[in-house]
Amino acid sequence: MDPVFLNQAGGLSMAERRIVAEMLGKAGRIDEAIELLVPHLEESSLLSVLVDITDGQGRDERVLELIAPLADHARQARGEEHREYAFPDAQKLQARVLERAGRADEAIRILGRDIAGHHLLEQDTLTVYAGLLARHGRLDELRELTAVQDAHTVLDIYAGALRSHGRAEEAEAVMRDAIAADDWVGYRAWLSSMLLAEGRLDDAIAVAEPGFSWYDCSNLLAPLVYPLLDRPEELLHLVEHPMVVPHHGHEEFQHWWRAWALAGLGRVDEAITVAGLDRPWTDPRIVKADLLRRAGRLDAAADELRALSTIKAREELCEVLVLQGRADEAIAVHPTVAEQRAAEPKRKPVPLSENGYSLEPPN
To answer: How many domains would you assign to the chain?
Structure first.
């Protein structure tokens, strides 16, 4: 690296150093990138950059030399009464580099020893270890891990490994036994998604239905809905399940999903009614155009959007025209960046106190 640049690099912020290292890596100047990062590897994000930019570049042994003392430091810090969380990712990153260097057995041995000795700074290191076992077919060790560690963290990895090895019935049995013993939402979410992927929609519904009316992220309906967005008949079957009811102020999701299914089946008028076009945050003509497009009625969707002529409508119209094979017209109608910025809502200036903080409470 140019000595002048090295001198200048000393004044770089961590964010700037990361950007420069990534640019050097993309330019194939890997050794220079490593040299730039080495003095600052105590910064966790830069250690991750080091691992990322050297992937496939023949520098794994050098990277392992640099990571080893940091990973050892992390192990020692875990056992101290007053922990300091330097190098929290070092153990995981060490295992990652060992694996890609063809030394997966060593990575498994080292992380396994760390887990057995409780020498972990971050819980997700356990997930990394379980993933290692799964990728390398160590299913017996993975099964044993689920018995002695947090099953909420690793049981789905074990079940997924069974399935990927052609043992789907065993994977299903593992999760059904777990649900019987500990009816945790994560077990139901994994099993219902697996059953859906196997084409067993009714079985997936039976597993997930206790959570169909739960709130937000605990709702087990959404993980089944999204894979079915392009399968309107099955989607309608799902959202018309009797336990799918409006709840907790989020009824628009169920209405929209049902409308999307109806439109996909060509039942546009019903879809428009179900979508609830009187909602104040939704422009009804854009929603209508979206449903028309979903039903394959592209000319009608384009007419709705042309009549509206807002920035959002022009963005949507561009997509419709592309679907019609009218690329030149799509490019012409799409709003410019300046128009998009001008259409963004302007924030009202907030009065500030002498210390620079807002005098108004947050919204």
So the answer is: 1
> For residues 59 and 76, what is the distance between their CA atoms, to the nearest angstrom?
27
Q: Is 252 helix (H, G, I), strand (E, B) or coil?
A: helix
Tell me the C-alpha distance between 249 and 100, whole Å. Answer: 47
Handedness of CA 306, 311, 313, 314 (dihedral sign): positive
Q: pLDDT per residue over 241-256, tens digit each?
A: 888 775 555 565 678 8
Domain that holds residue 315: 277-343
284 pLDDT band, cuts 50/70/90, is confident
- Position 42 pLDDT exceeds 90: no
305 located within any domain: yes
Which positions ≥6 away from 39 have C-beta within 8 Å?
none
What tokens were used for 245? 């009811």
Question: Which CATH number belongs to the domain containing residue 338 in this structure?
Answer: 1.25.40
Does residue 99 form part of some domain?
no
Q: For tokens 């777990």, name the residue.
A: 178
Residue closest to 14 by CA, chosen among 34, 35, 42, 56: 42
Would 297 be classed as within a structural domain?
A: yes
* pLDDT single digits (tens) 334-362: 988 888 888 777 666 656 655 555 556 55
Does residue 224 sit within a domain? Answer: no
* Type of residue numbered 283: D
Task: Supply the pLDDT for residue 361.
Answer: 56
Task: Dig out the tokens for 286 from the structure.
Answer: 């854009």
